[in-house]
Amino acid sequence: DVKVTQSSRYLVKRTGEKVFLECVQDMDHENMFWYRQDPGLGLRLIYFSYDVKMKEKGDIPEGYSVSREKKERFSLILESASTNQTSMYLCASSFGLAGVHSYGQFFGPGTRLTVL
Amino acid sequence: QQQVKQSPQSLIVQKGGISIINCAYENTAFDYFPWYQQFPGKGPALLIAIRPDVSEKKEGRFTISFNKSAKQFSLHIMDSQPGDSATYFCAASMEGGSEKLVFGKGTKLTVNP
User: How many residue pairs from chains A and B have C-beta atoms closer than 8 A?
Assistant: First the structure.
C-alpha cells in the first residue's frame, strides 16, 4: 500500500511564526505536490516537484516555499505565517512519466493548520 | 481556461437513489478526467477516471459519462449507499503535458438511510 504521511494532523501557530509542514512518501514516487483545501474552494495547488531539488509554482504559491532534498520528502514552508493561511494542507505524490494518469495521485491525511 | 466547474456544491440523496454530479471544462487540451473521493479526516483517493475516446466508463455502481462536444462529464452513483457519503472532486489534466491536476471545487454528498 502506498503511504503518504504528514508530520502533524493538527497544528496551531502564531502570526509571524515560521512553519514547516513535512510530507514523506514510501513508494519511490518522482512527483510530489502540496495543496491547500478550503470549504467551497476545493483543492488548490501551491507547489509541486518532479524530482529532487526541483520545484515549480502552482496556482497559489504566494507566501509559501518548498524544499525537496530527498526523493521521499517534500516540505512546505510558511516563512511568516498569517491568519489567511489557516487551512487544511494536503500532500500528494505520484509516479513520474504520466503516472498520475495511470495510478492517480496518492494523498496524505492532511494537516489542519490554524494561525492565530 | 484552466478551470473545472463542478455542481452541485452539496447533494442529499436517499439510500438506493441515483447521485449525479456534473463538471464542465473549457480547455480542449484536457484529455484525462478523474474523479476523487474524500471521506472526512482522510485525503482524497482516486475513484474512477475516463479519457475522451470513450463516452462512458463504469466501475461497479460508479459511472462516468463524458460529452466531448459539450465539454462536460458527470459522475453517476447508482443505488447510493450511506457509505458513499463523502466529498467528490472532479479533475482534469493533459496526458501529454504536466502531471498537474486541475480540480473542481467539490460536491459534498450525503446519502440518508
Answer: 59
